[in-house]
Description:
The structure holds 2 protein chains of 2 kinds.
Chain A: H1 4-10, H2 24-32, H3 46-56, E1 62-65, E2 71-74, E3 91-97, H4 102-111, E4 113-116, E5 119-122, E6 125-129, H5 135-148, E7 153-156, H6 159-169, E8 175-179, H7 184-194, E9 198-201, H8 205-217, E10 223-226, H9 232-249, E11 258-263, H10 266-277, E12 280-285, H11 290-303, E13 316-320, E14 329-333, H12 336-349, E15 353-358, H13 365-370, H14 376-386, H15 388-391, E16 396-398, H16 406-413, E17 417-419, H17 427-434
Parallel strand pairs in A: 3-6, 3-12, 6-7, 7-8, 8-9, 9-10, 10-11, 11-12, 14-15, 14-16, 16-17
Antiparallel strand pairs in A: 1-2, 4-5, 13-15
Chain B: E1 16-18, E2 24-26, E3 45-51, H1 59-62, H2 72-82, E4 86-90, H3 103-117, E5 121-124, H4 129-142, E6 149-153, H5 159-168, E7 171-175, H6 180-193, E8 200-203, H7 213-228, E9 239-241, H8 249-252, H9 261-279, E10 283-286, H10 289-303
Parallel strand pairs in B: 3-4, 3-10, 4-5, 5-6, 6-7, 7-8, 9-10
Antiparallel strand pairs in B: 1-2
Helix pairs in contact in B: 2-3, 3-4, 4-5, 7-9, 9-10
Amino acid sequence: MPTAIEFFKLLPKTNCKDCGQPTCLAFAMLLANQKAKIDDCPHVSQSSKDALEASAAPPVRTVTIGTGKEIRMGGETVLYRHERRFINPIAYALTVSDTCNVTERIGEIKKLSFERVGTVYDIDAVSVRCDSRDPKRFADAVDSAMKIWDRPLILECVPEIIEEALIIASSRRPLIYCADKDNIDIMAALAKKYSCPLAVRDADIEVLADLAERAKELGVNDIVLDTAASNLKECIERHTVVRRCAVKKKFRPFGHPIMDRVGSGEYAIAMAAMSTMKYGSLVILDDLKNYEALPLFTLRQNIYTDPQVPIQVKQGLYPIGGPSEHSPIFFTTNFSLTYFTVRADIERSKMPVWLQIVDTEGLSVLTAYSAGKFTAEHVADALNESNVLSMSDGPVVIPGLVARMSAKLRDLLNRNVVVGTTESRDIPKFLRDLK
Amino acid sequence: MKIPDVSEKYQGRIGEVSLEGGYAAGGADGMPFLSFENSSKRRVMIAGEVIDDISEYPELAASMFSSRQNDPVEWAMMWKEIGADMICLRLKGIDPDKGKRTPKDAAKLVKKIADSVKIPVIVYGCGTPSADNEAMSEISALVKDTRLILAKADEDEYRTISSAAMAGRHVIIAFSNLDVNLAKQMNIILTDFGMTVNDILMDPLMAPLGMGLDYSYSVNERIRLAALSGDKMLQIPMICDATGAWDVGDAIIDDEHLGNVTSRVTWWETMTAMAAIVSGADIVIMRNPGAADMIMGYANELRGD
């Protein structure tokens, strides 16, 4: 991404204010922080736009698989998430062999779906794999898959067999997996002919660069790199080399998303976790159990959160589970971790609760209390502001860690105040006993 | 095609803390597990958790130790048999509200465990400062010929525990709350008080998977990058506690749709530990022997040959 000065050089430097900013330099600074678009300047020349587009191209190209409900991969600009953020979350795909009952298998895959803190997690893509070595059978399997799977597809097949399936599926823009040094020309030609993204694979990182370059020469722009990592060490080292080459050295052959094919079993899950943390954009697994899927999806969610978003939630009233005029009123701080934890534990109880969040500038319960930002007065003000006390005559529940404020709060609110649990995880039991 | 050289030449390196039994922690001079920029190949160390009072310990975890969890010494021995590099003993029993163990008895227990296992032992108190301070003093007075790791010193409570550590030539754990600057500040406080950097491990608080792991992951990475760039007050080996995974509802809740709870919590703890070691941890504290076994295997392999 260009700096503010680099942007500034390409602007008209007239300070005309037509972009809404006082000066061209102010506008350039917004551009550098991705807070404005170059098109906001009505006077910028086409040659400047072209120059910017070239230099603003992210070091890792964004590649999509599928249409409509597509997977976006790559587009990354940094090596560490704290530097800005990681952009496009890694996708998880499961293998469907063309020798199995495709409909049944995909039905099972669809069941791997969870909801966690308001987000639904499920499998992003299926990879139809040719095990039959029969073009007709493979094409039939792809056809069956497309009937019940409207999300992205990967076609895992050798070049002699894949074309029949591509004719059926190319409108869905599947990822072709994969080209190697023996078949790169014919695979690249197929990818070009059917306008599909192409994976290239080799364990030798220099050969991998050659393959990416060759695919590009043959007219394929959307390339995905498979470093053929067979263990965690290869995974972290090869992924790091590829991504550093792209981000720090602008080495174009590696300016593409990275993927892994990890097989099944315990070790495959560890590989998927490593790929999730270290620059992977796609992992194909042969198998994924529900007890493996939930932690893996959660890891992805954690790694791809935006570290620049303040770790606070807004002060306000958060009704959980449709609370009524008698439901208890909980309150806690606006530190997002506290909020998510308390919220999740209340949800787990399956009981309706009014949750009042008090602005403590993102501090947790004890820290905020010690800092004088979470006093009985603060709490009373927040409760009065949200008007919850007139919506429910239920008890006000104090976090156990700040039980000391109960007398004061009772006086201020003139209302039944109960001391809750010290640990958020004990809330469900507390709510059951409260009844 | 030749590819560019992307190994970093860092100015700084992580110091080494020597531990009981000829072990040492730290020494990294590159980001974790990249053999092309790390000259040393020290393996991440795994500490197995032992608690002297298991009244609040999860039953599911207890069931994994074939009744040996009922005797802390036996429990520690079991961890050693499993392959743990260290023991992490938590003295919950000295909590005055429980009154199960006096600080003097706690010191005897620490000595007994240290003498039995002959691998490094981390000793945590119960969290009540008065009891912990008394216990750390007793431990330091009793255990003279073994180098323990005393935990934990934080901004409010560091004097007594540091004095105990210095008196017995023990190591100390400097705790800070998810913040690079606080971590550095804590190391400065301890060295100003008289500790040497080779007697400090730092614990920047490892938030578990699904409950703030994102913050910890980046705080750890930033600490390690700053240390490698030359910030001496951060060139201290890092210890992360992965047992927080057991506090996450999704990891331990009984729910058929989420799958087998034993396998789920095992993965929860393993992935928390993986995130810790990938972001810079030199030592990881584990609760679940299955997860510990997995992370030991991965750590071995990541070390490379």
